[in-house]
């Protein structure tokens, strides 16, 4: 490892470098008196130039924001490069050899080889760009035009064309004095029995630049059907090009990122171009790999991660792969956690497609309507479950709890738990208990965190089964078998492998029925309603029969009983009388394991002495049942409403609001309010 650059060499580089030439790569300067130049300050917004450069002094100063320094400080601020790297770049620029303390200088041969590779890439980039405007590049020109990119856009981003053939670029670089040994190291060529040949042939080319703007590699897109290669082909790993350390567009986006404290991560070269042209100039893309730890290091340099205001916005797809890609990005370090967002176009369009279909404003709006990463993960997980059923909501809660538990900032967990409570219609305390349990489970497993993560982490991520799930999406209500012909858990549930799952028809004989706990309020209310319709059906007023039939039951065993009562009444007619015939009709619609429960309900004493008291009791019980049913429907719809984005789904949002109002009117009418 190289040591410190000697002080005298730093002074020499500073003295030999013309600060005006360096600054003019970033700022337009005009004469401002003898030996002085001025322009608009690159460090703050201003309309009148207050940024002054004195070449003879080797310094700059802004009278607006008070920034000042020498050429080294200027480049460090503009390119966010470390001191040593900045000095080395300036030394290479003027051809000065540096000397080092504590370990000596970098290998001169290595330094020279790197510069030769950079030179070769520069020449190649110019070659590709010139070829884009030839007749042979018609397919490339058509590709760009169909995606809304004109010649000015192509020139801005250095887009080019690799002509068809085996040695066009090879001969061009040989003519510029590069040896085959040097060209092998660039990654721009493959080697066969006859020697080197062009790696990129008949393809649209994007130059991939380092932070400082040097071309270090290329990305190439297939244009012709007879091209047997992959759709996108990048430069392989070389001395210059390390895909895990490269972000396409960072050379253009670095200043906007540093200024706005926001970076937008997209998935492709055309998406970067589309975003920048639409005004989202902070967009960058990875090059053939997932956004990982090394990319995070690059981003931090521009976001100044010592503040809480930085934002990272992902535009990954909303599918499981996109979710995992977004979550994986910050597994290594969650200091970004509160400022990480996901922007997903509802119809699945990427930024390039969105700009083409709806214009620049739509691309900006996509980023403006970003969703916090953890909210995105929670919503994506919830979609995997049937949240119209109680059991589905419970499964969703158990799957989401590890995601909330993953949040290292303890002040954020209660907020997300409350959000999750609203989306699922489950009490916040219950959600918090599930989160605490998930955190403890992760600690016992030794993972150090809970929630979504790479395979093998022992965590549960979006798109994967939640704790206790059977690995498949929750089935729609009524499509899954009951538990032992109607067990004591809420309806809509499924037994886990090895449990007593299976429909009555699949059973090998009567099994014991697991009944709901009669002390539980909902269970008790449903049981009392069943006792009334089984024992005194003739005392139930006609309107209340309609209420009973429309009201579903929470527990599976009660729902089976409810359905049998409804079927028996439809069979016998509306004016049914209590007694043996009525119970026999109901029994005929029940699976055998529930016959004993029917008998139990039919003989339980009702708390009434006279017929009128019995009628009042029946009305009161059924009123309470229907009110509970209405409140449950309201809770379900409110949870659905909370999960919606009113701007993206206005019609559904308004419909749910109307349905909530109708349910409230029904409840008031029932209660005589």
TrEMBL record:
InterPro entries: DNA_primase_core_N_sf, DNA_primase_DnaB-bd, DNA_primase_DnaG, DNA_primase_DnaG_DnaB-bd_dom, DNA_primase_Znf_CHC2, DnaG_bac, DNAG_N, DnaG_primase
Catalyzed reactions: ssDNA + n NTP = ssDNA/pppN(pN)n-1 hybrid + (n-1) diphosphate
Region (Disordered): 438-519
Residue spans of biased composition, Gly residues class: 448-469, 481-490
Gene Ontology process terms (BP): DNA replication, synthesis of primer
Signal peptide: none
Cofactor note: Binds 1 zinc ion per monomer.
Keyword field contains Transcription: yes
Cofactor(s) the record lists: Zn(2+)
Role: RNA polymerase that catalyzes the synthesis of short RNA molecules used as primers for DNA polymerase during DNA replication.
Family, per entry: Belongs to the DnaG primase family.
Protein name according to UniProt: DNA primase
Record organism: Kocuria varians
Lineage: Bacteria, Bacillati, Actinomycetota, Actinomycetes, Micrococcales
